[in-house]
Amino acid sequence: QVQLVESGGGLVQPGGSLRLSCAASGSIFSINAMGWYRQAPGNQRELVASITSGGSTNYADSVKGRFTISRDNAKNTVYLQMNSLQPEDTALYYCNANLKRRMLYAPENYWGQGTQVTVSS
Predict the structure, then answer these.
(1) What is the spatial distance between Cα 7 and Cα 23, in angstroms, rounded to a whole number?
(2) What is the pLDDT of residues 23-63, one digit of tens each?
(3) Taking 90 as the threshold, does the pLDDT of residue 1 lie above it?
(4) What distance in Å separates the CA atoms of residue 107 and residue 121, rounded to the nearest whole number?
(5) Which segments of 1-121 does DSSP mark as H helices, in order?
(6) Strand residues in 1-121 grouped as ranges (E)
(7) Which residues contact 91 (CB under 8 A, 6 or more apart)?
(8) In terms of Cα–Cα distance, which of 43, 77, 79, 83 is closest to 63?
(9) What SS3 class is residue 74?
(10) To the nearest whole percent, how much of the chain has pLDDT over 90?
């Protein structure tokens, strides 16, 4: 069984920072990409940032220059450093991994349980 374990969410004031972490574990052969999505009340779930196994990154326009995604391949862990947080960043953040399990060829998507980020004074 593959699991994604998230941490780092919480309450922060505008202009503050948070660092989210997500570790993938289980019978994993390889990870193609990992990323962070978020969903705010009344909104669709949107991609925040992603990173491939080779280190290529992609960001939503709304977070460029403020958020940084990184990974530790040895630990199958992805991080999201969030700086200059704004109330508009308030959402439930989900970790995602596209990976191949051992003895299987087809890649699969896995999701974390979600961690709440609230930006408010």
Answers:
(1) 9
(2) 999 999 999 999 999 999 999 999 999 999 999 999 999 99
(3) no
(4) 42
(5) none
(6) 3-7, 10-12, 18-25, 28-39, 46-52, 57-59, 67-72, 77-82, 91-101, 108-111, 115-119
(7) 38, 39, 40, 43, 117
(8) 83
(9) helix
(10) 95
Q: Is 94 exposed, middle or buried (0-12, 13-18, 19+ CB in 10 A)?
A: buried
Distance from the first to the final alpha carbon of the chain: 40
Q: How many helices (H) and strands (E) would you count in the chain?
A: 0, 11
Would you state the structure tokens that stand for residue 51, as one six-digit string? 């990173």
As a whole number, the mean pLDDT across the chain is: 96
What is the spatial distance between Cα 8 and Cα 82, in angstroms, rounded to a whole number?
11
What is the helix, strand, coil percentage profile of the chain, to 5?
5, 60, 35
